Each structure stands twice: as structure tokens, then as C-alpha cells.
Amino acid sequence: MIINHPLLGPRDAQEFTYLGDATLINRPDWQSDNAAQAFHDYLYLRDNPAGEHRELWFHEQGDRSWLVVTRNTVTHEILSVEMARDVAKAAAAERSAQ
Amino acid sequence: MHKLKPITPLGGATRRQDTIGAVTITEVVDQALASVAARNGQAKAVQRALTDQIGLTLPDVGKAADAAPFATFWMGTEQWMVTAPYDSHELLAAELKQIVGDSASVVEQTDGWCRFDVAGAAVCDLFERMSNAPVRSMATGEAIRTTAEHLGVFLWRLADDRIAILGPRSSAGSLHHGLLAAAKSVA
Predict the structure, then answer these.
(1) Which residue of A8, A46, B117, B143 has the fewest C-beta atoms within 10 A of its own C-beta?
(2) Short name of one Pfam family for this protein (chain A) (predicted)?
(3) What is the pLDDT averaged over residues B169-181?
(4) How far apart are CA B22 and CA B25, in angstroms?
């Protein structure tokens, strides 16, 4: 499997390690009233789709960046690769615009 | 006072050099290293400080740059490794910290890495056997982080026929073994 790194171009999957669902970026606010419930959901509740899945990968043997990889779990086709920092920044900008 | 003697990454008193066929592998022990990581949103300030004071231009993704006696290569997003001769810049990290101030985090790296310079017409043949980095298409002044001999390493193309490899110092022996084995197979 080849992951097309947004900065470095196509790199072999052996350079990467897998973390999990990309929703792990959206860590709940620990000071909110429903923090216990929110963290329970954040930690334990995951979809396990057969098909497109957004997931976090770490380029451990490369530039050590976190990536959000959209992958089809059935075919292993990689549909898009983004820098996790860009995804997180875009999400933060969207939240503050609301 | 104890009589302490510095040793090289391979454990010798002096640097080791091996010539196998047309390839020469030299242990490099005279370079100090420090990493510079820009703090959040301050990459431009770091760049300005280094250009103003030591004339060093921080390179873009996958590239290296030099401004004698300093040289630098890209390590990751807004992070660079800087090298300089050990004899004149033993306190490289402190020196860089003075320059960049609060705009970047500077970490001493000299004793964390070992470096071998591999020279000869067959360098690409050698590194093709050791890693999956596209060494043949790397131009002079490009650097890449990848794996070789199961170790995380930087490959830094210094010239057409010269590539530096930096790996973890505690595994210098394994890396050297890998280099020798690859050199023998291309000799």
C-alpha cells in the first residue's frame, strides 16, 4: 500500500503507523457539564464501516506528521490524504465562524 | 578528575573509514547537530532571525541548504536540523537558541546521531539496496527521512557521488554493518 503524502509524495505504508478513526481529533471539552458522557463516547463509540473510512496515520519513519487518510476498508483504495493539522485548523475555523 | 576519553559512535578513538570496491564509507565525527522547531505560527520569525544573523535560509520540504560553516536540512513541518563543525560550534544548540529566542525550540542532537558519508560512483546502487528512498532521482541538496537496516535514518545527498546517512547513534554498529554489506554486494 502506498500513501500519497501531501508534502512528500508517494511513500510506502511501512513508513507509517496507524492510530484509528479520524474523529479522535475532536477531543471533547473536559470542563463541559457532560464531560464524562462525552469522553465515554469519544473513547468507546466507533463506527466500523465496510467502505470509506477517515483515519489517522502517523508518518513515523518520515517527517513525523499526522495524516488524515480516507481509505476504503474493503478495497484498501486510498481516496484522499490530508495533513491532520490542516484538518484540525479548518475544523477550528469552522467552529469559531458559527 | 577521571580521565575521560571521547569515543566515536562506533566506539573507536578515531573515525573509521572503509573502502570497498569503488565506495568509501567514512564515519563523520566532527559535526555538531541541533534541531530547530518553529513554535506555533512563528516560522517566518525563525527564518528572519537565522537569515539576518548567520545568513542561513531554511529550506523547503525535502531540501537542504548551507551557509558556511552552517548547513541545514528539512526534518518535518516547520522543523530543521542544523549542522556545523564541532570544533568551532560545540555549543551549537545554545548558539542557535540565542539567535531564535522564543520563536523556536532548539534541541541539542549531536550525541543522538551517527553519521556516515558514503562516496563513490556506486552510491545510488548501495542506497537502493538499503532503503526504498528514490535516491537516484534525488538532486544534490535534497534530504529524505526513511528507513534503512530497520532504522529510521536521514539520507542527505551532498553531491552526485556522495550521500550522508544519519541514524540513531546507539545503533551505529548495525547501520555500519548494513552499509558494509550493501557496499560488498555492489563492489
Answers:
(1) A46
(2) SoxD
(3) 97
(4) 10
Quote the cell numbers at residue B157.
545527498
Domain that holds residue A19: 2-26+40-97
Q: Hey, which bits of A1-98 come out as E strands?
A: 2-5, 9-12, 17-21, 52-58, 66-72, 78-83
Residue A76, H or E segment: none
**CB burial readout A78-93, b (16+ within 10 A) else e:** beebebbeebeeeeee
Q: What topology does CATH give the domain B17-29+112-186?
A: Gyrase A; domain 2 (3.30.1360)
Residues in chain A with CB shorter than 8 Å from the CB of B75 are: 63-64
- Report the interhelical angle of B123-130 vs B172-186 (nearest 10°): 120
Q: Per-residue DSSP letters for A38-60?
A: HHHHHHH-----SSEEEEEEE-T
Contacts of A62 in chain B (CB under 8 A): 145-146
Q: How many domains does one find in chain A?
A: 1
Q: Kindly state the percentage of chain A with pLDDT values over 90.
A: 84
Contact A65 B76 (CB under 8 A): yes
- Look up residue B186 and give its three cell numbers: 555492489
pLDDT tens digits, one per residue of B128-159: 999 989 999 999 999 999 999 999 999 999 99
Helix/strand/coil for B17: strand
In angstroms, the CA B179 to CA B126 distance is 8
Is any Cβ of chain A less than 8 angstroms from the Cβ of B40?
no
